[in-house]
Amino acid sequence: MDQPLESVEKSHAALVARRERIIETWEKRSAVPLALLAIGFLALWAWQVLGDLDIQTWDAVEVAILFIWVAFVIDFLVRLFFHHDKVLFLRSNVIEIIALAVPAFRAFRILRVITAVGILTRTAQSLQARVNLYVTVMLPMVVFAGSLGVYEAEHSAAGATIIDFPDAVWWAIVTIFQVGDASFSPITFEGRSIAVLIMLAGVALVSIVTINLAGYLLRNNGIRGLNLPKE
């Protein structure tokens, strides 16, 4: 009885390991193409918001954005299919699910940008590299996406204070760094939703940088007895 059970356990472990290798290979190969698609998405969205497009061009851009969204859906479904614990996978990717599930709500397009930059971190081999990506890539992309989103939502609303794009950029910067500026505040539901997302992104970014800095100091300042490995 024990021998067949042990054999089943070994087979299951081998299957899980094989699926994990498939996911790892897929993530490494898809990271850069998906990151480029994310940049393309941001550029197309900016063209829609800031450009003076006719109806035909606007629709063509929207179709291109839809194809990019489909690519991200395919990536998610592939990883879900090969994951050995699908419930755990879904629980661990709630933000990505929301970003993929609400394409009709333009205000939440910033979630796609955050998710896409998270995909780019697959290429990072160390915590230091991930933090560098967050600071040099994610921060500017989130600020720019937040600026686009709040400008699109606010600039034509009655009584709005964010009515041009430079003001939207300034608002996004002071919001993500938790500074704030009483001269500019969103009044629409979409604008306030984006404000919440940007504030959360700012808190997460500061936390990541703080953790990395603390780890760097512990590894490099000769603190004994902790046995912290260097990267």
Give structural notes.
It is built from eight helices and no strands. The protein is globular. The mean pLDDT is 80. It has helices at 2-50, 55-82, 86-92, 94-101, 109-120, 127-154, 165-176, 189-220. It has a single domain (26-220), classed as Helix Hairpins, CATH 1.10.287.70. The protein is an all-alpha fold and 231 residues long. The longest helix is centred in the N-terminal third of the chain and has 49 residues, at 2-50.
SSE layout:
Blueprint: H1 2-50, H2 55-82, H3 86-92, H4 94-101, H5 109-120, H6 127-154, H7 165-176, H8 189-220
Helix pairs in contact: 1-2, 1-5, 1-6, 4-5, 5-6, 6-7, 6-8
Q: Nutshell version of this structure?
A:
By secondary structure, the protein is mainly α.
The quaternary organization reads as single chain
CATH topology: Helix Hairpins
Inertia-based shape: globular
CATH class: Mainly Alpha
CATH architecture designation: Orthogonal Bundle
Number of helices: 8
Name its key features.
single chain, 231 residues, mainly alpha, Helix Hairpins, 8 helices, 76% helix
